[in-house]
Amino acid sequence: MGRTGSIGSSSTRLTGQKLGFMQMPPTWTTDLPPDLKGLVEAAVRARSNAYAPYSRFPVGAAVRTRSLGIYHGCNIENGSYGATVCAERVAIFSAMAAGERDFDALALVAEHGAPLTPCGICRQVLFELAPTLRVVMANLTGGVTVAPIAQLLPAPFVLLES
Ligand code: THU
Questions:
Q1: For ligand 1, is residue 77 a contact (CB within 6 Å)?
Q2: Which end of the chain is more exposed for a tag (fewer CB within 10 A), N or C?
Q3: DSSP bridge pairs for 51
């Protein structure tokens, strides 16, 4: 089980594990559900394909469909830095391009002190394509945090038809 702690006054108390500089909400978990162990291993393997000559920060990702298909992703950088694509988006775009639409979980892995959390652009993309997604954030030393995408992005942009 993960450690717990608390910050804030009694009226605004937030309990949970510390995740980098922030306090983890109590509904998130540091226990890896056994059925997601293989997905983290797939993300570790995908990381070896990263193209990250500029940051030297390889990231691996793997997304699982509800029918248990697995699609891999890694970060792919570019000398025009803004053209870089994160591992999470490569994974889910690859799955979308194969015709998949129903996603259950996504794992991402990097060599990082605390389990890596997805960037804001990836959170927006993941929420639109898979609003019930479980996101498994991991590092290479066994640190894991699991959170629903809706909690990682509490106020997503949604384009509504007028
Ligand atoms: N990166 C990812 O692939 N996923 C993340 O969640 C965070 C950042 C990549 C983008 C860039 O290639 C490198 O990590 C450094 O930011």
A1: yes
A2: C
A3: 76
Which residue of 57, 136, 149 sits with most ligand 1 atoms within 8 Å of its CB, as the best mutation to test the pocket? 57
Q: Are residues 23 and 5 in contact, defined by beta-carbon separation less than 8 angstroms?
A: yes
Closest CA to 108 of 77, 87, 132: 87
pTM: 0.88
Q: How far is CA 92 from CA 3, 22, 29, 64, 126, in A?
A: 31, 27, 23, 9, 8
Over residues 16-65, the pLDDT tens digits come to: 566 666 777 777 888 899 999 999 999 999 999 999 999 999 999 999 99
Q: Which CATH number fits domain 29-149: 3.40.50.970, 3.40.140.10, 1.20.1250.20, 3.30.470.10?
A: 3.40.140.10
Q: Does the Cβ of 65 fall within 6 Å of ligand 1? A: no
